[in-house]
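Bench log, entry 3. Co-assembly request; chain sequences pasted below exactly as received.
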Amino acid sequence: MSLVRPTIILIGLIGLWQAIVSLSGAPPYILPSPLAVAQAWIARPDLFIRHGAITMAEILLGLMFGLILGIASALVMAYFRPARQWLLPVLVVSQAVPVFALAPILVLWVGYGMASKVVMATLIIYFPVTAAFHDGLRRTEPGWVELALTMNGSRWAILRHVRIPAALPALGSGLRVATAVAPIGAIVGEWVGSSSGLGYLMLHANARMQIDIMFAALATLALLAVALYFSVDFTVRRAIPWQPDSHPNES
Amino acid sequence: MSQTTNKLSPPSSIGLSVRGAHLAWHQQVLFDGLNLDLAAGRWTCLLGPSGIGKSMLLRLILGLDGGQGNSQTITCSDGLALDGRVAFMAQRDFLYPWLSVLDNVLLGCRIRNENAPDRDKALDLLSRTGLAAVATAMPDTLSGGMRQRAAIARTLMEDRPVVLMDEPFSALDAITKIRLQGLAAELLNDRTVLLVTHDPLEALRLGHAIHVMNGRPAVLGAAIEPKRLPPRPVDDVEVLEHQGELLRQLAEAAP
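Structure output for the full assembly:
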């Protein structure tokens, strides 16, 4: 059931794409047909798999580091009040400077390889995760906390047994947003300077007018991003079944 | 009083006296110099119109936040501190949605990091509250009445001599409410209980002593002490007699 709708949307979009190609008569070097793109993919699957794996690895590593850093920052801010006043501005600044603007500097510092892309993805993921989790930690249902207080829970015990589990749905939402934007960091990093990855492959193909390869790389990226989003969404739902959005039991 | 106690209070049962409670809330003095006595092993009920400060008084005893200028002294009849000897039950059940019913009952052990939570005791309490079959269920799958039963089991698991309850049955339908009142009266009959409620019938069914709180700053009226032991049936003559009187007092107190 849940897969029916995405499948219909995908087929619809490909149909629309084909219709635009047929009706407008756009030359293949502007807009190749879906079939031509599929043929480009089938002709060199190793190319897309190799570059796709690298981009995916960058995204996953970025997600991992962004998640760890984000959770740690949110916990520190929730547990040590003075830390919030120091960390919050840093957090805002980290988001106010566009990652795109940082990309050349990061490539200069961290190098041409995967590390700079992972850092980029981490930066993009860090903010939504931290903001959402911190928000969740601050908005614990007061009744839950008061109950724990009357049970003589220490501050640490209340954080561990009440505030953290209560904030997990918020962390889940943050992680979903982060997953949706994570590929941006990796791709921008690859555009600025790299020798592998789907972003590199697109630029490379573009320069050689291999528009079908460029589109096939884009389609691969889209497919990977969507698959990643749905698996994260699925995992979050399974891990946090008491999500408020699925159980509107509080009146 | 000509009461014959049907069950001896255990030695752990303590009385409580609150002297000179003061509370200001948004620049309004809710009560000032208020005194309240809770007899050991008895249910004391506090009735009064909304916003009079009943819940605030209860929170004050619990040591939860509430206004400024807390100057009350709380003394226990055994001379020891109240800290750690009082359990709280709120209007909403506040079951943690990520824990099973059994784990919710074991919540206090978890929060205090006790090494060996007494699962047998928790299971026993669940069967006494009629929840043995749903011990492993998640709270989301239970009805409102069952959730409140689980909250009662959790309160009993704490095994504190003093239990403070803030309108614990007010969100339930009439029949569930009467059943749960009976259950609570039976399971908590040796505890020192303060029950805050809107409902004169509930107070008259369950209270050994019933106070009406009214005015601003609020004062406590003289205790009504029905002769029959709680839980009294809803059609008890005394209950019906006092109910009219209490309703009249509450209507006069309402602003």
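Confidence is low (pLDDT under 50) at residues 246-251 of chain A. Chain A touches chain B through 23 residues (CB under 8 Å).
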